[in-house]
Amino acid sequence: MAEPKDHLNVVGATEARNFKSMLSVVRDKFPPRDRITHGQRLLADLRQVRIRADDIAARRAALGIEPRLGLTIAIRIAPRGLFDFKNIEWKRDGIEVLNARPGDGFDLVVVHVPEGRLAAFEGRIQDYLDKTTRKGGPKNATLVNAIESFRSGAFDELWTEAADPPQDTQARWFQLWLRTGTRTPAITKQEFVEAAQGFEIEVEEGYVPFPGRIVVAVHATRQQLEQAVELLDMVAEIRGTQPHAEFFSADLTPIEQAQWVRNLEQRTEDHSHPDSAYVTLLDTGVAQGHPLITKSLHVADMFAANAAWPVTDNDGHGTQMAGLILYGNLVHPLASSDAFELHHRLESVQLYPPTGHTLPHLYGWVTDSATQVVEAANPGRRRSYAMMTTATGATTGSPSEWSATIDRLSFGSAGTLKREEEQVKRLFILSAGNVSPKLWASYPTINTTTTIESPAQAWNALTVGAHTEMTEIDAGKWPSLKCIAAEGALSPSSSTSMLWSRGWPFKPDVVAEGGNGSTDKFGAVVGPGSLRLLTTYHDMTVSPLVETGDTSAAAAEVARLCAHLTTRYPDYWPETIRALVIHGARYTPAMLQSLAKNPSGNDKEGLVRRVGYGAIRADNALNSTTHRPTLILQEKIVPYRKEGSDGRLNKVNMHRLPWPADELLALGGAELQMRVTLSYFIDPNPSQRGWQSKFRYQSHGLRFSVKAATETDEEFGQRINKIEREEAADGDELESMPDPDSGKWLLGSRIRSRGSVHSDVWNGTAAELANKSHLAVFPVGGWWKDWSQAERHGVEVRYCLIVSLEVSEEIAVDLYTPIQTQIVVPATPAVVDISIPTS
């Protein structure tokens, strides 16, 4: 096996150039309508809306509520998908888009119209009827032809969940997304609480801020909310809440297990110290007194999201995860006679109240509170957050309050439109959520139809699914049992994003060992023990060890790898640690069996939606070798600039790749892989307003492109940058310039560009790679660019770029050393060399 080496940090090889995207969006035109009939029908709709508005104003006055507030209007736009919703958000008239969602052949856009501003619509429609443009068409035809109808908005129009809104009279929990306007989040919450008292609506403690919105949880009936949303004029969206997933809880007797545990305890060498990397476990707490955990989790590092809650574990799940984060699958270190080195430590935050099983209904607020607790106690620690709790229920990939909070915390934003000076970036490792064991007999179809659970759709998080290498069953002991999953395949427990709407990120990002299941004539079985992982149990009086598995265990293993990476490379950003985990992952033969010989785009999408970028490989993530050099670039870019009142794309960063040309050319036609991973965190904007144009979810987007083997430097610049193309064309018509190497990438630019981490593999010859000398990172649109109120033009953002080469170890070549001699290696403190068990 090749000797492990440190990754190569590259600086000083970046050139920033002015940039104009070659991408463009061409929208189809709406079909023409009968001018008179259509215009008069819309005016009739608005007359009914005005009558409704007068009635609402009278009811407000009778209740002592400010009568001059405004109203909510639902606008039906057809056909679907052709209209840019920012075209009906008119700042001068104070009209604001509250939410937008697709229907069957139409889009429904809900807007807030201030009192007295209904004339903004009436005037434009009257001009459509009365005035003609120079081209002979009706004035405002693009706008008015798009609108099919107007109606007053109420509960159903503000409901933005995929499921139908409740119709019964039962009181239940809801999430209300409130408009902040010019108010601060705290004042918005206070005003709503005071107003809600008049409707006997219970408002839960806490709120979650986002740009232009805050989210509160309320307990009410539909009837109560219908009255409140109509009269209070503050609600932009109504969403439901989901219950949290229930956690699941040997051949050796407890006494025998204890003997094995004591042996491992004696062999464990604790090399951690107060400045070590930490994994902060957000779970059910951790039990005190377990000999394998005590030294790595000090009592002072045990917290609860609510100071009134206990910090210890009465459920068991948190203690199970703690053991995996520290040791991995305990089968391997227990069976070994070697010393076991620990270089990282734990923090624990209890997320659950002492009684009951229901979290507060703003999961994001609880998660935010948990991060504040540990960071206030120890603000300078290098930590990753691991959370295995998910909310039950299907998802579509669209953001929830919880997932968006994790994106906000990862990015380091305060969740308002104020421009933050100092941002603390955070890495969250999340489990994808599980398929119930009762359904495992329907594997793998059930995994396709069971979607990843919230908050695992978070863009910035490292979302972990489960695969398995465990296929051994003692036939003498269990003669009727057969493994469900093949070696290297998706675990029976792992959910997927196969049913998610297009446009949302592919999840999971990676998979790790989650154990297997088995079947007999009676159905599916969890286990036997040879198909499960072994970890620490919370009650030593019963047993020191317990079996576990599924996506929780997989996420714990990834959190462990993140701690090893943070220990090995203390100067790497959270974005970089996430990228290294993904960059090091590989597809197993079982995973690749789903791909045809010449796979289609849908085949490739299916692969990533099931298993992400593959199974984690600790050695790949941690080490370079002479045959697999890995280059790390931690860079910054200003994606947008302001030009007049509009936002424009700003710069492209052109990176020179320090390839050893002589060595590569000498290899000639030898096959080689180049793997590229781009990782950055986005600032979320999760209000459901169409997530397009100025209402995009992501603050900014970045993309990468690599020079083709047959391109000159000038041709590459012209292919990706319209400014360079225009200069070369000198007024002539611009020619199409596709990527000549597009067929050599595994996923391709269309598939790899989802979310905020993009990874792909190029396959070619060493001679071809010698000419692939440049890689460009450039911006695409985001809400920072289009929303002038955000004031984010000119703001610098970070990204990590990882590029590695990989050639067969059977070839006698050293690619690492000649690259090392070309790059400028910054001075770094001595790193800790840690050994990773093969498990």
How would the blueprint of this fold be written?
Blueprint: E1 8-9, E2 14-18, H1 35-62, E3 71-77, E4 96-102, E5 107-113, H2 119-130, H3 141-146, E6 147-152, H4 155-158, E7 172-179, H5 185-196, E8 202-203, E9 208-210, E10 213-220, H6 222-232, E11 235-240, H7 254-267, E12 268-270, E13 278-283, E14 302-304, H8 317-327, H9 331-335, E15 340-342, E16 345-350, H10 363-377, E17 383-387, H11 401-411, E18 427-431, H12 445-449, E19 462-467, E20 482-483, E21 510-513, E22 517-520, E23 523-526, E24 533-536, E25 545-548, H13 550-568, H14 574-584, H15 589-592, H16 601-611, H17 618-622, E26 630-637, E27 640-643, E28 646-649, E29 651-656, H18 661-667, E30 671-679, E31 701-706, H19 713-720, H20 722-729, H21 749-752, E32 757-765, H22 766-769, E33 774-780, H23 783-786, E34 797-807, H24 816-822
Parallel strand pairs: 1-26, 12-15, 13-16, 13-17, 14-16, 17-18, 18-19, 19-21
Antiparallel strand pairs: 2-29, 3-5, 3-6, 4-5, 7-10, 7-11, 8-10, 9-10, 20-22, 22-23, 24-25, 26-34, 27-28, 29-33, 30-32, 30-34, 31-33
Helix pairs in contact: 1-2, 8-13, 10-11, 13-14, 19-20
